[in-house]
Amino acid sequence: MGLSLLFGMFALGLICGMPVAFALGLATVAGFLYEGLPLFIGFQRVLSGISIFSLLAIPFFIFAGELMMQGGIAARLVRLASSAVGSVRGGLGVVNVASSMLFGGISGSAVADTSALGSILMPVMKEKGYDADYAVNVTVTSSVAGVVIPPSHNMILYAVAAGGISVSKLFIAGIIPGVLMCLCLGIVAYWIAVKRGYPAETFPGWKYLGVATVVALPGLMTAVIIVGGVLSGVMTVTESGAFGAIWAVLVTVFVYRELTWAGFKTAVTSAVRTTSLVMLLVATASSFSYLLTLYRVPDLLATAVTGMSDNPLVILLMLNLILLALGMIMDMAALILICTPIFLPVVVGIGMDPIQFGVVLMMNLGLGLCTPPVGACLFVGCVVGGIRIDQAVRTIWPFYLAILAALMLVTYVPAFSMFLPGLME
Amino acid sequence: MRDGTSLGGLEAMIFQLFDRIARLCVAIAGIGLVGLIVIFGWLVFGRYVLNDTPTWVEQVALLLVVWITFLGGAAGVWTRSHLSVDFIRESLPPLIRTPLRWVCAIGVLVFGLFLAWQGGVLAASTWPRVVPMIGISEGYRAVPMAICGACTVLFSLFHLYELTKGGQN
Amino acid sequence: KEWRTWAIHPDDYPNVVALNAFAEEVSAKTEGRVEPSVYANGILGAQPDAIEQVRSGALAVGNFNMGPMGEIVPATNVLSLPFIFRDEDQMHTAMDGEIGQQFSDALAEQGLVALSWFDGGSRSFYNTKRPIVTPADMEGLKFRVMNNDLYVQMVDELGGNATPMAYGEVYQSLKTGVIDGAENNYPSFDSSNHFEVAKYYSVTNHLIIPECICVSTTVWDDLDDTDKAIVKEAAMNAATIQRDLWAERSEASRAEVEAAGVEINEVSDPAAFQSAMEPIYARFISENPDLEQLIRDIQAVE
Ligand code: NA
Ligand code: NA
């Protein structure tokens, strides 16, 4: 009953067009009142849901992206990318996927990837004649690679929840599935671009490409600072995000001399807007998740699944479906903590390695990040791309299929995730 | 932040006032965001150059993020830039659509009331507690939630007023 | 009546095993009048939130570490003083007796009924650079500590560079060299996988912080005397189970990390570490003069 009330209120909020964050919050309030729980706990969850260190990277990447856009870095990067691969039909779509693969390995946050790459690439894609929904779809779905490709905060969370799993092996295990996912997405991005007849430009020549590269270099350094800072061990991901933003200011003010005071204010304002929309959602979703946990929703689902079949293939498929469903309505970090202890014994029982399950879990929940009704990446993508969620969702299904194809391969062929960690022994 | 040129008299004054409030929220949040970046620069500088890590940065940053979120969130109510799924409502016949708009605006108003009320309750109850490492009251974490709630209530009252005039929601 | 019980640790942890035993015993002996159910893994929130939830009665029971408790019950900060206990046995003797009662009284003022005391393990330093044998070996190393001024002062007094950091960041930061070390007990060193990247574990035992099973006062006051006695006894039994399992687990984790190539060393002169803490004690006592007697009493326990 309490559960129906919770979901009923949420659905009502969505149908009448309330902001998703508010619909989640109001449904949670109803649930707390119904259960006779002190209301302040729900709002305490709202606050602590965003007082999390790893989330700090999000405003930094969003801000860096805005600065890169306002100060002319993004434009130069895109000139470079399009002179390199613009002659391929749908080249910018492929560039988008490829940069997610590289950038995702740095930021470790799909939401950060969506905001940073989205704010750079989407305006250019639109300018070059790509539809906004295509730009959003590519950016959002390819950012999921950031969850699987190391480093990833979420994988560390999983390793801790699973107890005694090697984080380094888990990181290594994510590489091939992440690349596989990007490969599938790249193919889809190309195919749709061809089908929609997006333009292919003529190759501008090596000299032009060389100049474009040199001009883009100081901007590219932003990425070098972020990657280099993390890989060299000088800074944490969060700190390198902050330095990326600082560097972006320096380059756009002193090198490109394009960042005006008005442009800076615009960058700050947009970054505040995007950050607050995302974080408010994380906040109320965390409160909503609290009630789902109290109602032991994941336990109920687990019992239902194992009661249905004892065929490993069927159980795995069912698990995929449940995780996808949960990923649609719940926050990723919370789901990792809740689902791991429940589902891990089930899959270990049918012979799956905990490391492989970790990768499968990330991919499943990652896909959930770009599905409605609760999909942080999808939301950010739509905000950045300036379109409504329903406009994006109408044409996103081929990209879902690409991720699903990769997911099925990783679920049923252990070698994809287990080959590299196997080399470590 | 919004265009209020079609309004007149008292309406226009209230509109201007609320618009200023929303701008102020964004301005403060923006200063917070820039501050966030500056203190992280200081953190790395302290750790490497001074070999003395400033221990307050992490806690201050977590506090700043809450302020940015709720102040930005309040302005988002005024500019209606929050993420919502309105295609369902808009595809329904006007007979259902109009009441749903009312439900929506009232729902936002009600949640705003809860945010303001519970933000106040939390601020008061955590006031004696101290944020570790920075020594200021834990209550400051809940204050922006109360502010966001209060602004949400004001802004959605204006939206309700616009609805009575047959305006967009 | 369902008693929602909060625990931060995963299901197979000694604490959660003991809490489940507690739940079974209470449920059987009260014939279902009280039905504790354990929510492990901290899924209902972090400890500061969970404390508020238990105080308000939304949750009935919590297994709280006394480290972060200091924000709410200042007297418990005494337990966060480095080297306040000589070893775990002395901690058990103190907490099971008159001194434990003083802490229970302080907790009761904040709406928490402490029923029994668990082991929180003894924490030692580990790092990626070198064995720590004397305080001089700490010089210049960046150690992650929990968010508490006392722990920051502790590392600073020993010559290290204290770096407060979220627990989830530590693995990556150790690996990439953002920090050089951290401090924890064997089971956490093992389960967090930090041993994969930090190969030196130096047995300082600088912090021995107990944990409690705390029941919400509002929930507790609803019980009649028979049930109170049953719950209290079950909690005492759970503590016995937890302490035994904890000792086993520590031993197993120690063996595990050693097998993984971690170099474990004893410090040459524990007194050198302890005497470095004198300024911290002096400052703490000057700020909390009323707690001086409690500190002396603990130190006097055999
Ligand atoms: Na990543
Ligand atoms: Na989703």
TrEMBL record, chain A:
On whether Ribosomal protein is a keyword of this UniProt record, the answer is: no
Q: Name one GO molecular function term.
A: transmembrane transporter activity
Describe its membrane topology. Multi-pass membrane protein
**Keywords for the protein's UniProt record, in alphabetical order:** Cell inner membrane, Cell membrane, Membrane, Transmembrane, Transmembrane helix, Transport
Where does this polypeptide localize? Cell inner membrane
- Name the major location: membrane
TRAP C4-dicarboxylate transport system permease DctM subunit domain boundaries: 7-416
Task: Name one matching Pfam family.
Answer: DctM
Q: Which InterPro entries match?
A: DctM, TRAP_DctM
Provide the coiled-coil residue spans: none
- How would you summarize the oligomeric state and partners of this protein? The complex comprises the extracytoplasmic solute receptor protein and the two transmembrane proteins.
Q: What does this protein do?
A: Part of the tripartite ATP-independent periplasmic (TRAP) transport system.
Tell me the protein's name.
Answer: TRAP transporter large permease protein
Name the source organism. Answer: Aquimixticola soesokkakensis
Organism lineage string: Bacteria, Pseudomonadati, Pseudomonadota, Alphaproteobacteria, Rhodobacterales
TrEMBL record, chain B:
One GO cellular component term: plasma membrane
Source taxon at top rank: Bacteria
Start and end of every Tripartite ATP-independent periplasmic transporters DctQ component domain?
36-164
Where is it predominantly found?
membrane
Localisation per UniProt entry: Cell inner membrane
The entry sums up its family as follows: Belongs to the TRAP transporter small permease family.
Q: Which gene encodes it?
A: yiaM_2
Q: What is this protein called?
A: TRAP transporter small permease protein
Q: Which PANTHER family match?
A: 2,3-DIKETO-L-GULONATE TRAP TRANSPORTER SMALL PERMEASE PROTEIN YIAM, TRAP TRANSPORTER SMALL PERMEASE PROTEIN
**Transmembrane domains' residue ranges:** 21-45, 60-79, 100-122, 142-161
Question: Listed GO molecular functions?
Answer: transmembrane transporter activity
Q: Which UniProt keywords apply?
A: Cell inner membrane, Cell membrane, Membrane, Transmembrane, Transmembrane helix, Transport
GO terms under biological process:
C4-dicarboxylate transport
Q: Which Pfam families match?
A: DctQ (PF04290)
Q: What topology in the membrane does the UniProt record assign?
A: Multi-pass membrane protein
